[in-house]
Amino acid sequence: MSQKTSILWIAHEANLSGANLALLEYINACSSATERQVLVLPHEGNMRQHAERLGALVQVVHFYPWVRQPKEPFLTRKLLKMQLRNTLAIKQMSTLLRRHNISRIYSNTVSVAIGGWLAILHKVHHTWMIHEMGEEDFGFRLALGKAAYRFIAKSSDKVFYNSHYLAGKYTRLIPARKSEVMYYPIILQTEKRKTIEKVSTPFSLLLMGQVLPSKGQHEAIEALHRLKLKGYSVRLSIVGNAENTAYKKQLEDLIVKYALEGEVDFESFVLKPNERMLQADALLVCSRCEAFGRVTVEAMKLGLPVVAADTCGCKELVTDMQTGVSYRYGHAESLVRAIETIMANAPLRSTLAANAMGYAEKVCSIEHVKQRLLSDD
Predict the structure, then answer these.
(1) Threshold 0.70, pTM exceeds
(2) Could you give phi then psi for residue 141, rounded to 5 degrees?
(3) Which domain holds residue 75?
């Protein structure tokens, strides 16, 4: 790209989340090479202040994601309401395109379809940034079924996936010629590195992410119980928003059942996760199917040892006994053995941290992301 361009970013939600943290990094990466960047949010939220600090113009245009629950029928009042509201949103965003001379549109997450319609209507370069599996991790399906994937292919010049595993799902339905894998750049909010020679008493385990069954908090609690029975002094911090109140209650009941009230605590989503990681001795990633694993790479860059399930995107990042320790997903005893391995071996923690830092810095580069985002190829 020889001259500066103007970009329209479309976010799927208005508050900070894993995908939106990546979006802020994309905006930051492109700032020096663009004339203007406009971010559209579906409602007001704290993304506004973070994006404006990076020089982006933020606009609120109300729209709905094109998703439904796995067993929800295609035609419902909800779907009709979504279509009517999104039709109006397309008109409003069309005005933004003309006003700001937008030449590129980026849709952040597969749940946002507005950008595709804008690209078709205005013949503008459109890139889809896909971060999630859908049903496997967040429990949703695209509203139009397989027709949605045909629409993604038709309305996109390029589709980026945040892991090879994720690409494997979508490239069965979307042409490979339009598809690329691009890891997040992941810019740390601190220059500090974890001091791993000394560990806490009790040993501090950290699990970060939304409190959902797919994130495996119950598996971490089960492992903690077994470690306690073996005589280990261990503490678990679960950090993330808990909108699924039924699952949160299930976890609380499990804590009471195992008499772990003093060993497990819950914390809300934190704006500076890196600082929270520096307080832990190891990060747990117990997800059923993580598309990428942002917190995994953040921990790696900080030198915090990682224990991760041997599933999906985690397998790309964590090579057992090289960049972290893997365990067999769904098997608490396997998780226990992995945690014991980390706790008992200080030289291994040092080796894993050094290997992980080198790997993460190599594959998650902001300059690399900038070049690929703005490429015309």
Answers:
(1) yes
(2) -120, 155
(3) 5-182
Hunting for tokens 């980390």 — which residue is that?
342
Write out pLDDT tens, residues 158-213.
999 988 988 988 888 888 889 999 988 887 776 667 666 677 889 999 999 889 99
3-class secondary-structure state, position 46:
coil
Q: Rounded to an integer, what distance in angstroms lies between the CA atom of residue 134 and that of residue 70?
A: 10
HSE, CB side, 13 Å, CA atoms: give it for residue 374.
Answer: 24
Q: What angle do CA 242, 243, 246 make, to 5 degrees?
A: 85
- Residues 260, 317 within the same domain: yes
Q: Where are the alpha helices (DSSP H) in 108-233?
A: 114-122, 146-155, 164-170, 217-229
Domain contains 196:
no
217 and 355: one domain? yes
Which run of H or of E encompasses 67?
strand 67-68
The CB-side HSE value for 232 (13 A sphere, CA atoms) comes to 23
